[in-house]
Amino acid sequence: MAEAILRLDGVVKRFAGHTAVHDLSMAVPAGGIFGLLGPNGAGKTTTIRMIMNVITPDAGRITLFGGPVSRSLAARVGFLPEERGLYKKMRVLDHLVFFGELKGLTPRAARTRSREWLDRLGLADWSSHKVEDLSKGMQQKVQFISALLHEPELLVLDEPFSGLDPVNSQVMKDVVVDLARQGRTVLFSTHIMEQAERMCDRIVIISRGRKVVDGAIAEVKRDFGGSYVALAFGRDGARAAPVLADRTLVAQVDDYGASAEVRLADGAAADQLLARLVSAGVGLTRFEVVEPSLHSIFIAKVGPEAATAPAKEELVHG
Amino acid sequence: MDKVWAVIRREFISRVQSRAFVISTILGPLLMGALFMMPILLAKRQTAARHVVVLDGAGGDFGRQVADRLRAEMRDTVTHTIPRYRVEYVAAAGRLDAVRDSLVALTGLRKAGPGALDGVLVLWDSTLATGKMQYDGANVGSPNDMNALERAVRPLVIGARLERAGVDPDVVAAAQGKVELRTERVSQGKLTGQSGDASFLLAYVMSFMLYLALLLYGMQVMSSVVEEKSSRIVEVLVSSLTPFQLLMGKVIGVASVALLQLSIWAGTAMVLTTYRLQVAGAFGASPRTVSDLPIPTVSPAMLVVFLGFFVLGFFFYSAMYAAVGSMCNSHQEAQQSQTPVTLFVAAGLMLMFSLLGEPNGTMAHVLSLVPFFAPFVTPVRYSLSPLPWSELLLSVLAMVAGLVVVVWIAARIYRVGILSYGKKPRLAELARWVRTA
After folding, report:
1. Angle of helix B243-274 relative to helix B300-327, nearest 10 degrees?
2. What does the alpha-carbon distance between residue B38 and residue B27 come to, in Å, rounded to a whole number?
3. Under CATH, which number does the domain B49-175 receive?
4. Residues B366, B377 contacting (CB under 8 angstroms)
5. Which residue has better confidence, B182 or B55?
6. Looking at beta carbons, which residues of chain B come within 8 Å of A81?
7. Helix B2-16 × helix A92-102 angle, to 10°
8. Cross-chain Cβ contact B240/A102 below 8 Å
9. Is B2 or A80 the better-scoring residue by pLDDT?
10. Which of A56, A265, B81, B318 could form a disulfide with B221 if both were Cys (CB 3.0 to 4.6 A apart)?
11. Cβ B14–A87 below 8 Å, yes or no?
12. Hey, CA dihedral for A195, A201, A205, A209, is it positive or negative?
């Protein structure tokens, strides 16, 4: 953790009426994918806006590349805001070139790279169309390109996958993973835990403006503790109910109908549960001792609070 | 600076490529050409002589004299010279009212064919003594026709009276020789070769162009701000350049579009006026009449003053429009909120009109020093009457000072406004933005 590319120390942001970010400290190491997780209204977007110097914190310090946040660092950072917006009347290629220039590229370089990226993301045929002619998913890809066109060292993506279909989502995921492999740092926010679990090296979970979890994924899972078993039923899931309801054996069930993730009670062993399920005749198709999923950690840490989270943070002005 | 340049270029190119710009740029010169050709074409069309009856209720020489005089009146049209009137003389002493009624019944009737009258000029017994006569006509609404009629008849009345008083007819004729007042504008102690009509027209057209350009392009700055704000593009922008750089780039970009359009228009106007003889000739007008048309020539100095004040005024007002845009979340909201700014622009135009009559009065002096109105008042004063350099300079200085203050305030509102969503701020809140930004 010595070489943090981005560090927040005791950052506070208040808006009229409430505190959106409360004493947040975190460090993003250089390289890899960093997840900023939290339910809606947790303060993710506010945090990212402060990192991007769109708004300034009321207290605390943000250190980027070892110095204070400043616009002179714009060329080293790429930013995809949560709210998607492009100039509707501009042509796709012109639009990308404009954003590239704002990040310090020459028009010629911006043009060449834009073409390459449009090609790679399957938008080559659309480069001379106006933005308003594109579908929402295509516009999102254009905006995604504009964030990484200048090959930034740090890429900040606010909810990059929201609103994308699985195919486009996959394409964008591949790009992000690829960038991380090249040694760049990606910080992205999401409230979709499965995605974060598969992609991130490190995560921070915030809830109502406070940090509740911080660390490498493996660490976080280990620290969360408990033994977990993933189950799937072939024939008759209903027969499993009495077994799973036995509190001496099972502490908690995350039931999905045909499958479930359970946390074993303290002192209970996995083979005891296996024996009971087999004798109940539930037709097991899967029985696997697993680490806790990020999802269950998330629910356990922020579940009760998330339900009462304030309205969408973006609507609050400051 | 490269980034500001990128913003300027984006604003410029995306606007110049738009259909609205192309259409309005072409429409402008077309309209100008139409304005130039209109008098020629209209003059060509109205060549029919007025059919007038001189109804003489007095008897004697005077009625005949009037009729002869009218017959001799000629009218210069752009293309040729024709008699102004087709005159019939009717002596009606003693039965004036009855004849008058029957003639009036024929007046203005198209279906009466060649017998239709344009009007009846009634002379009474008392006309010579009182100077009163009556014209009943279909064309009394035309100031041109009425002036021409009065001009033709007046010397006859005066002459007849003088002769009656015993003055030698030759003396009367000589005394009634034509008096002609030609006007020519003096500027900086030099004759400009320009008539008073022409400089009035120039001032009028210029201030209108200024008004339209300020309004149209100022609004464009505003809607560009609203677009960036409502689409949140502004978040990406302000993470790469300061709000002030963004504001400057935007205003300069839109200003260059406005200047481009104005120069295309001004260029067309200059070509039209420089080659007016050839252009008018192509429409069949004679050179002499064209040179009488009140068409102004634009001197380079005047162009500099006009464009200089346009640029200052544009920055002044578009900074305000940008501030208004930054407070609003949608185009509709912005449309409602821009009224105060637009009122100032409109007031500037109104005040300018009120000064046309007295371009060097106290009011004019004071208004040239008020930044809100100087962009309208000063160039118009400059075109109407010579303006000392000291006064011109003072007006520019006042304008620059006002500009600095307005841009300072507007930039602060803009900086906070573009990132604030939700309810529009009240005045107290705005003041806080300006203080704390």
Report:
1. 140
2. 16
3. 3.40.190
4. no
5. B55
6. 232, 235-236
7. 160
8. yes
9. A80
10. B318
11. yes
12. negative
Matching residue, tokens 């992609």: A199
The residue among A15, A54, A128 with the most chain B CBs within 10 A of its CB, best to mutate, is: A54
For chain B, the domains span 49-175, 192-436
Chain A residues whose beta carbon lies within 8 Å of the beta carbon of residue B423: 317
**Three-state secondary structure call for residue A69:** coil
Q: In degrees rounded to 5, what are phi and psi of residue B50?
A: -75, 135
Structure confidence by residue, pLDDT tens digits, A5-21: 899 998 888 887 788 88
Q: List CB contacts (< 8 A) between A101 and chain B.
A: 2-3, 6
Q: B231: which chain A residues are within 8 Å (Cβ-Cβ)?
A: 83, 85-88
Instruction: Give residue A287's pLDDT.
Output: 85
Length of chain B: 437
Cα B381 to Cα A172: distance, rounded to the nearest angstrom: 63
Q: Do A84 and B419 touch (CB under 8 A)?
A: no
CB-nearest to A102 from B231, B237, B420 is B237
- Give the model's pLDDT for residue A314: 41
CB contact under 8 A, A104 and B2: yes
Residue-wise pLDDT tens digits, B59-111? 777 888 888 888 888 776 555 677 888 888 888 877 888 888 888 888 877 66
Mean pLDDT of the B111-122 span: 78
What is the set of domains in chain A, with CATH numbers? 4-222 (3.40.50.300), 226-291 (3.30.70.250)
Neighboring chain A residues of B22 at a CB cutoff of 8 Å:
none
Q: How far is B401 from chain A (nearest CA, A)?
A: 30
Residue B50 has pLDDT above 90, yes or no: no
DSSP B173-230: HHHT---------EETTEE-S--HHHHHHHHHHHHHHHHHHHHHHHHHHHHHHHHHHH
pLDDT at A148 over 60: yes
Tokens of B366: 């004071």
